[in-house]
Amino acid sequence: MTKYKLEYIWLDGYMPVPNLRGKTQIKEYSSFPSLEELPLWGFDGSSTMQAEGKSSDCVLKPVAVYPDAARTNGALVMCEVMMPDGVTPHASNKRATILDDSGAWFGFEQEYFFYKNGRPLGFPDSGYPAPQGPYYTGVGYSKVGDVARKIVEEHLDLCLAAGINHEGINAEVAKGQWEFQIFGKGSRRAADEMWMARYLMERLTEKYGIDIEYHCKPLGATDWNGSGMHANFSTTYMREVGGKEYFERLMSAFEVARADHIAVYGPDNHLRLTGKHETQSIHAFSYGVADRGASIRVPHSFVRNGYRGYLEDRRPNSQGDPYQIASQILKTISTVPLAGAAAKAA
Ligand code: ADP
Ligand code: MN
Ligand code: MN
Ligand code: MN
């Protein structure tokens, strides 16, 4: 038997976006534990905005488990927060609101800033570095400094060792700003892995004295880019049947539900969705082929393949909760009748 360090990780009840929390328990297994072998656990919800002090117990229900390469015999256990009965989802548990759909695929592009001493990494103590231009996908000390690349490489290795479907990295437009992408099949998979990748990044950067700034416009109304988390999505029907008519009905549904989407696409998004810096205004809805100034970008390949494939919702911001984003996208898609059903109704 081996003693495993099980890190139970969950989202707290803070608004408008939750924080990651985690604590360790040691348990003996003959080999790396499967999800079914991981017990429910509890925590003090009165310390995480999830319960009153009088009745503070909340339940942690494991929903995914990943090897933790940073620890000997470590396991990362993603959990949903449940009520004391162990079966009713807690109000803060947005993962439980995601429709079941094994044919739904999501790809999230997480942009973020490294922050040191309250400033983006690589910014001078006062004032600004040279303006944006050379930093995006840049190489060399003057572009990316001496530590950022070390961190993103370490983070990539931790994600790959955990079995997270990490798809790539790039240095972003602002100094100190980076991106990574996570793709997953199934309505919850990419969101689970995004939260776990965020956890690994925040834990990793502790030892560098660096924080991750997820705010969508940390430098305010300046010429410095904000951060997004573009959500690429498709369903089996979109990939295999699709068609122009279905696509147009889908886009009408997204337009009708504009405010519901914006409500879960991350706080302060009006600061970022201004119509500048490759964004559409927060008050408008538009879509366009290869249009990075639209709310939804339609890839060239989508049109070429007879309006089949995936779409990119460019509005979610870097601080958004991928559970709530996936939940709302699937909810809106579910309101659109499929071609056969529409024909029958007509
Ligand atoms: P860009 O920066 O040009 O928008 P990226 O390469 O950063 O593009 O991100 C594209 C994302 O689209 C990736 O996360 C990828 O996994 C995702 N993606 C590709 N095909 C599909 C699909 N069929 N369904 C959902 N997402 C997809
Ligand atoms: Mn990208
Ligand atoms: Mn980007
Ligand atoms: Mn994108």
Q: What do these coordinates show?
A:
With 346 residues, the protein is α+β, with helices and mostly antiparallel strands. It is globular. 25% of the residues lie in helices and 27% in strands. The mean pLDDT is 96. Strands 6, 7, 8, 9, 10, 11, 12, 13 and 14 form a nine-stranded mixed beta sheet that branches. Strands 2-1-5-4-3 form a five-stranded mixed beta sheet. The chain has two domains: 2-92, Glutamine synthetase, N-terminal domain (Ubiquitin-like (UB roll), Roll), CATH 3.10.20; 105-345, 2-Layer Sandwich (Creatine Kinase, Chain A, domain 2), CATH 3.30.590.10. One manganese (II) ion binds next to loops.
Sum this structure up briefly.
By secondary structure, the protein is of the alpha+beta class. The protein is built from nine helices and 14 strands. It has two domains: 2-92, Glutamine synthetase, N-terminal domain (Ubiquitin-like (UB roll)), CATH 3.10.20; 105-345, Creatine Kinase, Chain A, domain 2 (2-Layer Sandwich), CATH 3.30.590.
Descriptors for this entry?
346 residues; alpha+beta; Ubiquitin-like (UB roll); Creatine Kinase, Chain A, domain 2; nine-stranded mixed beta sheet; five-stranded mixed beta sheet; 9 helices; globular; binds adenosine-5'-diphosphate; binds manganese (II) ion
Sketch the major β-sheet: 9 strands, mixed
Q: Please, how many helices?
A: 9
CATH homologous superfamily heading of the largest domain: Glutamine synthetase/guanido kinase, catalytic domain
Distance between the termini: 64 Å
| Share in helix | 25-40%
Q: Please identify, by name, the CATH architecture of the largest domain.
A: 2-Layer Sandwich
Shape: globular
